[in-house]
């Protein structure tokens, strides 16, 4: 049947995303991984891990601030410290944080027994900030205040002598936790293991996010023509996504012409010209769930070299997708991709992320990772419910352009389902059709070499 694509509204006549189930199943997976681990609690400053643990969100402006934090004790429920009035908002609008404490047999942190109306207690969401990445003067002892708050929760559960797993952290806060006698260890792997397999609702949200990019590519294909700038394409895509309900357009990678090889990973104000290759990566978030979704176009027409580069890029993609199924490994996938030296790089580290794969969820990149740099020595087994993006790249032999394709796939019980639907089987030519005296100009133009003659080699030296 495949993963359904719903409308974005909530309705009474169709079973769409169940947000209560989404929150409880995510937290359940995290608690299960915590239980299997050797740590007594988890402490998170990572925006996406906080959302996974607590089901809260205060806007993308806070993603890089490390101002919020939450702790999950092995024997208790999550406690969140949030930025100023956001904590008050959570107490009013996110009752699941307090209700979990109210239903816990240990009562709240002050020893009170659970009682009706516990959502007014505010035990699950509290005001509290970190150091604002050092902007608050060290003499204000804000790092020590964070450590005190965390220690109080752990002590109330008798976990102060157990290791505490942390994902990312500011050094002053780390030192303050250690000064309290807490043993701080790496907790990021616990979070990533929990997030590795997606729930039913996560799959729906990821598919919805991809469907929005389908629409953005449709508008972009209509828009592309000579005279358009890369940054204009970025603006168009961003508007389409926000109009459709995107929560955050994390980035639009717009690369054209000679900028395609080597791939610079950043857009510019370059003017797109006739015959240019242009590839784009669209990264955005719908209800927290992200996309990473490349497509390549030729504008006006394509050179034979660009056509061939795209064919090779697509072939490597198809070989990889054909192998995706439960029980296969990341090593199996990367084995069908070319070595770095085959497409102009000294080694796999220098070519990293060109032939690549990565998990997609509340963030990119998640587990599993596909790369010839790491996957042969550290293969990961594919399981049903994983969602990841596979990316391939190939430079054109004229040294000018390149092709870049990316597909997001869901591992099913019998294979996989591709959820990125905008056409990519063949190189698409965007822009107006041109007519000569004998009719339409061929979309593959032998004279379209950017060195204007086949007697030049791939770096422009006359042969």
> Biggest sheet: strands, sense, closure?
6 strands, mixed
Number of helices: 11
**SSE string:** HEHEEHHEHEHEHHHEEEEHHEEEEEEEE
Q: Give the neighbour order of strands across the main sheet.
A: 4-3-2-1-5-6
Helix content: 25-40%
Unreliable segments of 5+ consecutive residues: 105-120, 452-463
**What is the strand tally?**
18
Oligomer kind: single chain
- Report the structural category: alpha+beta
Mean pLDDT: 92
Distance between the termini: 56 Å
Radius of gyration: 25 Å
Shape: elongated
What share of residues are in beta strands? Answer: 15-25%
Task: Explain how this protein is built.
The chain is of the alpha+beta class. Helices cover 30% and strands 19% of the residues. Strand 8 (277-286) and strand 9 (289-290) form a beta hairpin. Helix 1 packs across helix 7 (188-196) and helix 5 (142-156) packs across helix 6 (171-179). The radius of gyration is 25 Å and the shape is elongated. The chain starts with 18 loop residues before the first helix and ends in a 23-residue tail after the last strand. Residues 105-120 and 452-463 have low confidence and may be disordered.
């Amino acid at each position: 049947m495949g993963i359904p694509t719903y409308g974005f509204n909530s309705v009474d006549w169709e079973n769409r995303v169940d947000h209560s189930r989404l929150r409880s199943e995510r937290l359940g997976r995290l608690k299960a991984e915590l239980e299997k681990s050797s740590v007594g609690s988890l402490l998170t400053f990572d925006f996406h891990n906080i959302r996974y643990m607590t089901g809260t969100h205060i806007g993308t402006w806070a993603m890089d601030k490390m101002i919020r934090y939450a702790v999950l004790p092995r024997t208790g429920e999550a406690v969140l410290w949030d930025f100023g009035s956001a904590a008050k908002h959570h107490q009013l609008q996110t009752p699941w944080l307090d209700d979990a404490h109210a239903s816990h047999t240990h009562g709240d942190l002050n020893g009170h027994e659970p009682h009706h109306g516990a959502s007014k207690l505010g035990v699950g969401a509290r005001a509290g900030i970190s150091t604002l990445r050092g902007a608050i003067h060290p003499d204000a002892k804000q790092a020590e205040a964070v450590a005190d708050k965390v220690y109080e929760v752990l002590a109330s559960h008798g976990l102060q002598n157990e290791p505490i797993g942390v994902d990312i952290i500011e050094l002053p806060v780390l030192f303050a936790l250690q000064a309290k006698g807490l043993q701080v260890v790496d907790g990021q792997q616990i979070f990533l293991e929990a997030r590795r397999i997606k729930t039913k609702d996560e799959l729906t949200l990821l598919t919805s996010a991809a469907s929005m990019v389908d629409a953005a590519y449709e508008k972009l294909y209509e828009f592309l023509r000579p005279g358009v700038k890369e940054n204009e394409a970025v603006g168009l895509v961003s508007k389409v996504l926000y109009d459709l309900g995107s929560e955050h357009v994390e980035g639009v990678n717009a690369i054209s012409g000679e900028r395609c090889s080597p791939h610079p990973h950043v857009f510019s104000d370059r003017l797109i010209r006739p015959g240019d290759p242009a590839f784009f990566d669209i990264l955005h978030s719908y209800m927290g769930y992200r996309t990473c979704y490349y497509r390549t176009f030729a504008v006006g027409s394509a050179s034979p070299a660009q056509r061939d580069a795209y064919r090779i890029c697509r072939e490597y993609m198809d070989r990889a997708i054909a192998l995706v199924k439960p029980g296969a490994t990341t090593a199996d996938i990367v084995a069908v991709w070319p070595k770095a030296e085959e497409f102009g790089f000294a080694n796999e580290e220098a070519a990293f992320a060109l032939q690549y794969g990565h998990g997609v969820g509340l963030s990119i990149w998640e587990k599993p990772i596909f790369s010839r740099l790491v996957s042969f020595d550290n293969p990961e087994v594919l399981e049903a419910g994983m969602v990841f993006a596979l990316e391939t790249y190939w430079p054109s032999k004229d040294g000018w352009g390149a092709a870049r394709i990316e597909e997001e796939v869901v591992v099913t019980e019998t294979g996989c389902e591709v959820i990125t639907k905008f056409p990519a089987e063949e190189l698409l030519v965007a822009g107006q059709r041109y007519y000569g005296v004998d009719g339409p100009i061929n979309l593959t133009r032998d004279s379209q070499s950017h060195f204007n003659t086949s007697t030049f080699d791939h770096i422009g030296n006359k042969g």
